[in-house]
Amino acid sequence: MISATGKSKGFTLIEIMISISILSVGLIFVLQGLTQCLSILRISQNNLEASLLAEEKMAEVEIAAKQDKTTFSKDASGEEQSGNIEFKWQIRLTPDSGYEDLNKVMDTVYWKEGRRSGVSVFNTYLLIPHDK
After folding, report:
1. 52 lies in which domain range?
2. What averages of pLDDT result for each successive group of 10 residues across the chain (132 residues)?
Protein backbone atom coordinates (compact mmCIF):
# COMPACT_ATOMS: atom_id res chain seq x y z
CA MET A 1 0.00 0.00 0.00
CA ILE A 2 1.30 3.44 -0.90
CA SER A 3 0.46 6.53 1.15
CA ALA A 4 -0.19 10.07 -0.13
CA THR A 5 3.50 10.93 0.37
CA GLY A 6 4.57 8.11 -1.98
CA LYS A 7 6.05 5.83 0.65
CA SER A 8 4.83 2.29 1.19
CA LYS A 9 3.18 1.51 4.52
CA GLY A 10 3.21 -2.31 4.38
CA PHE A 11 4.00 -5.43 2.42
CA THR A 12 2.37 -6.38 -0.84
CA LEU A 13 0.74 -9.76 -1.35
CA ILE A 14 3.60 -10.90 -3.61
CA GLU A 15 6.20 -10.05 -0.94
CA ILE A 16 4.26 -12.01 1.66
CA MET A 17 3.89 -15.03 -0.66
CA ILE A 18 7.61 -15.03 -1.49
CA SER A 19 8.63 -14.80 2.17
CA ILE A 20 6.25 -17.62 3.13
CA SER A 21 7.62 -19.84 0.34
CA ILE A 22 11.23 -19.16 1.43
CA LEU A 23 10.28 -19.95 5.04
CA SER A 24 8.55 -23.17 3.91
CA VAL A 25 11.63 -24.37 2.03
CA GLY A 26 13.79 -23.65 5.08
CA LEU A 27 11.42 -25.58 7.34
CA ILE A 28 11.45 -28.55 4.98
CA PHE A 29 15.26 -28.75 5.21
CA VAL A 30 15.13 -28.50 9.01
CA LEU A 31 12.52 -31.27 9.26
CA GLN A 32 14.48 -33.54 6.90
CA GLY A 33 17.58 -33.04 9.03
CA LEU A 34 15.60 -33.84 12.17
CA THR A 35 14.19 -37.08 10.77
CA GLN A 36 17.64 -38.14 9.58
CA CYS A 37 19.06 -37.46 13.06
CA LEU A 38 16.32 -39.58 14.62
CA SER A 39 17.06 -42.41 12.19
CA ILE A 40 20.78 -42.30 12.98
CA LEU A 41 19.99 -42.23 16.70
CA ARG A 42 17.84 -45.36 16.35
CA ILE A 43 20.58 -47.23 14.46
CA SER A 44 23.09 -46.16 17.11
CA GLN A 45 20.80 -47.50 19.82
CA ASN A 46 20.49 -50.84 17.99
CA ASN A 47 24.29 -51.09 17.67
CA LEU A 48 24.64 -50.33 21.39
CA GLU A 49 22.17 -53.09 22.29
CA ALA A 50 24.05 -55.48 19.98
CA SER A 51 27.36 -54.68 21.66
CA LEU A 52 25.83 -55.17 25.13
CA LEU A 53 24.44 -58.54 24.05
CA ALA A 54 27.84 -59.54 22.65
CA GLU A 55 29.55 -58.53 25.89
CA GLU A 56 27.04 -60.57 27.90
CA LYS A 57 27.55 -63.67 25.73
CA MET A 58 31.34 -63.34 25.90
CA ALA A 59 31.14 -63.14 29.69
CA GLU A 60 28.98 -66.29 29.74
CA VAL A 61 31.55 -68.13 27.63
CA GLU A 62 34.37 -66.98 29.89
CA ILE A 63 32.52 -68.13 33.02
CA ALA A 64 31.67 -71.49 31.44
CA ALA A 65 35.27 -72.00 30.34
CA LYS A 66 36.66 -71.26 33.79
CA GLN A 67 34.12 -73.49 35.56
CA ASP A 68 34.52 -76.54 33.35
CA LYS A 69 37.46 -76.46 30.95
CA THR A 70 36.74 -79.78 29.30
CA THR A 71 33.03 -79.76 28.45
CA PHE A 72 32.11 -76.18 27.61
CA SER A 73 31.02 -75.55 24.02
CA LYS A 74 33.51 -73.95 21.63
CA ASP A 75 30.66 -72.82 19.36
CA ALA A 76 27.38 -71.33 20.50
CA SER A 77 24.53 -69.46 18.86
CA GLY A 78 21.08 -68.25 19.69
CA GLU A 79 18.37 -65.67 19.25
CA GLU A 80 17.14 -62.90 21.52
CA GLN A 81 14.29 -60.42 21.33
CA SER A 82 14.48 -56.91 22.77
CA GLY A 83 11.33 -54.92 22.15
CA ASN A 84 10.77 -55.05 18.39
CA ILE A 85 14.43 -55.81 17.62
CA GLU A 86 15.47 -59.37 16.75
CA PHE A 87 19.04 -60.37 17.59
CA LYS A 88 20.89 -63.47 16.37
CA TRP A 89 24.30 -64.15 17.84
CA GLN A 90 27.07 -66.64 17.21
CA ILE A 91 30.23 -67.23 19.23
CA ARG A 92 33.19 -69.23 17.95
CA LEU A 93 36.33 -70.10 19.90
CA THR A 94 39.41 -71.05 17.94
CA PRO A 95 42.81 -71.91 19.40
CA ASP A 96 45.52 -69.36 18.71
CA SER A 97 48.41 -70.92 16.80
CA GLY A 98 51.10 -69.06 18.71
CA TYR A 99 50.09 -69.95 22.27
CA GLU A 100 48.84 -73.23 23.66
CA ASP A 101 46.30 -71.85 26.17
CA LEU A 102 45.11 -68.81 24.20
CA ASN A 103 41.81 -68.90 22.31
CA LYS A 104 40.40 -66.30 19.94
CA VAL A 105 36.76 -65.52 20.69
CA MET A 106 34.73 -64.15 17.78
CA ASP A 107 31.22 -62.93 18.62
CA THR A 108 28.96 -61.94 15.73
CA VAL A 109 25.63 -60.26 16.43
CA TYR A 110 23.05 -59.71 13.70
CA TRP A 111 20.10 -57.43 14.41
CA LYS A 112 16.93 -56.63 12.53
CA GLU A 113 14.28 -54.02 13.26
CA GLY A 114 11.62 -53.69 10.60
CA ARG A 115 13.46 -53.00 7.35
CA ARG A 116 16.69 -52.02 9.10
CA SER A 117 19.35 -54.59 9.80
CA GLY A 118 22.96 -54.62 10.87
CA VAL A 119 25.82 -56.78 11.98
CA SER A 120 28.45 -56.24 14.65
CA VAL A 121 31.56 -58.40 15.02
CA PHE A 122 33.59 -58.45 18.23
CA ASN A 123 36.91 -60.22 18.75
CA THR A 124 38.86 -60.88 21.90
CA TYR A 125 41.20 -63.47 23.36
CA LEU A 126 40.52 -65.82 26.25
CA LEU A 127 43.19 -67.61 28.24
CA ILE A 128 42.05 -71.11 29.22
CA PRO A 129 44.92 -72.93 30.97
CA HIS A 130 45.01 -76.69 30.47
CA ASP A 131 45.36 -78.90 33.51
CA LYS A 132 48.66 -80.76 33.44
Report:
1. 13-127
2. 64 91 96 95 90 89 78 80 89 84 89 89 83 55
Contact 89, 54 (CB under 8 A): yes
Task: Please give the tally of structural domains in the chain.
Answer: 1
Q: Measure CA 125 to chain center.
A: 24
- Separation of alpha carbons 24 and 99, rounded Å: 65
Task: Please state, in angstroms and rounded to a whole number, the distance separating the CA atoms of residues 117 and 42.
Answer: 11
pTM for this predicted structure: 0.69
User: Residues for the chain: how many in total?
Assistant: 132
Q: Is residue 2 part of a domain?
A: no
Q: Is residue 52 part of a domain?
A: yes
| Burial class of residue 130, CB neighbours in 10 A (0-12, 13-18, 19+) | exposed
Tell me the three-class secondary structure of 29-88, residue by residue.
HHHHHHHHHHHHHHHHHHHHHHHHHHHHHHHHHHHHHHHCCCCCCCEEEEEEEECCEEEE
- Rounded to whole angstroms, the Cα distance separating 90 from 7 reads 77
